[in-house]
Amino acid sequence: MSEPATPSSRPRILSGMRPTGKLHLGNYMGALANWVKLQDQYECYFFIADWHALTTDYADTSKIIPNTKEVMLDYLAAGLDPARSALFLQSKVPQHAELALLLGMITPLGWLERVPTYKEQQENLSSKDLTTYGFLGYPLLMASDILLYRPDFVPVGQDQQAHVELTREVARRFNQFYKLDGQEVLPEPKVLLTPSPKLPGTDGRKMSKSYGNTIQMTDPEPEVRKKLKTMVTDPARIRRSDPGDPDKCPVGDLHKVFSTPETMAKVYEGCRSAGIGCIECKSWAADALVQVLIPIQERRARYTDADVEDILNDGSDRARARAGQTMQQVCAAMQLTSTR
After folding, report:
1. Average per-residue pLDDT for the chain
2. Which domain holds residue 268?
3. Would the pLDDT of 292 be above 90?
4. Rg, the chain, Cα only
5. Cys staple from 316: which of 88, 103, 122, 162, with CB 3.0 to 4.6 Å?
6. Per the structure, how many domains does the chain have?
7. Helix or strand or coil: residue 148?
8. Domain CATH number, residue 20
9. Contact yes or no for 257/292 (Cβ under 8 A)
C-alpha cells in the first residue's frame, strides 16, 4: 500500500488519456514526450480515463480493459516513471464520480452545451447516438478529474484550452457558494501550454485513430517502412523529374519533427532540385522514425501484464489518498457528511 499523500514543494500537474487503443506517434509527440520532461519539475498525476471512454463507446465496452493495459504500457514505454509520477486508473478512484455529482448540482446547462467539442464530436461521430446525459456532461467529469487533485497546472495543447477554462469557471462558481473557514477549497488551475508539432498521418491529415492513418508506437520497423511508402507527398511532384517543396509535403513535416539538420538539408536540396525521388525521401523519414521508436519499444518489452497491474494499483492508491483529502474539504465546505 502507498503512503498517504504528503505536501510537495513542487507545483502539481494532472493530465490523462482515454483508453481507445494503442497510442501512436501523434499521441507521443503531442503529449507523452512532454509529460516525460515534466516529471523532473512537477508533482505529476497521469491517469487513464476509462470512464470517459464510456461517453462515446458505451454500446460496446469489451475493449476498455485490454485497451487500458495497452495505454499504460505505452505510458511506460514513453518514459513515464511510476516512482516519479502517480500513474493511475480513473475508475479505481471513485472520488472522480463523487465530485462530478456534486459539481453537477451547480453547473449551468448552457456551460456544457457551448463547449466546442460537444457539437463537433456529434457531427464527427454521427454513426453513434451521443444524445446522452453522459456525453453532454463529459466536460464536467473532466473538470472533476482536474479539480480533484487541485493541480497548479494542466498540460494541454491549444485545442484543449476550452476544457481547462470550463474547469476554472466551475471552480470559481463552487468557491462563490462554498468556503471552508473562509478559504476557497478548489483553486483554479492554470493552462500549461505544451509544444505540439504538426504531425501528419499517412494520408496527409492529422494523425488520428479515427482516420486509420497512424504510425503506432509499437509498429515494428518493417511496418513503419511499409506505411511510409504509401504516404502522400507534395501533389506538385507528379513525375520523378518534377521539383517539389518539403514545406508543402506531409513527409517533409515528418522530417521537420524527427530528422537531423543534416538530413533536412539533403531533403530540401534534393526535393527542390528533383535530385531525389519521393521513395528515397520516405526512406530517410523512416530511418528517423525507427531511431525514435527503438528505445520506446525496448522499454515497453521490459514490463509484464503483472507489472502493469501493480503499477496501476499503486498509482491509484496514491491518487485516492490525494483525492480523499480534497473530498473531505469539499464536503466540509458544503456541510455534507464525508464518507472518506
Report:
1. 94
2. 209-298
3. yes
4. 22
5. 88
6. 2
7. coil
8. 3.40.50.620
9. no
Provide the Cα torsion 284, 287, 288, 293; round to 10°.
160
Q: Which residue has the higher pLDDT, 2 or 290?
A: 290
**Set of cell numbers at residue 145:** 478529474
DSSP type of residue 2 = P
Same domain, 310 and 265: no
> Do 145 and 262 share a structural domain?
no
In a domain, 1, yes or no: no
Quote the CA–CA distance of 335 and 340 in Å, as a whole number. Answer: 14
Which amino acid, 213? Answer: N
CATH of the domain at 216: 1.10.240.10
> Does residue 85 sit in helix, strand or coil?
strand
DSSP per-residue codes, 298-332? HHHTT--HHHHHHHHHHHHHHHHHHHHHHHHHHHH
Contacts of 265 (CB under 8 A, 6+ apart): none
Query: What pLDDT digit, counting tens, does each position of 213-250 carry?
Result: 999 999 999 999 999 999 999 998 989 999 999 999 99
Grid cell, residue 85, equals 509520477
For 261, the grid coordinates are: 539538420
Do residues 27 and 122 share a domain? yes
CA distances from 53 to 35, 62, 218 (A): 21, 11, 22
- In tens, the pLDDT along 178-200 reads 999 999 999 999 999 988 888 99
- Write the pLDDT tens digit of every residue in 105-146: 999 999 999 988 887 788 878 888 889 999 999 999 999 999
Cell of 269: 536540396
Q: Which three cell numbers stand for residue 322?
A: 490525494
Q: To the nearest whole percent, how much of the chain has pLDDT over 70? A: 97
Q: What is the pLDDT of residue 4?
A: 43
Strand ranges inside the chain, DSSP E: 12-17, 43-48, 85-89, 153-156, 190-193
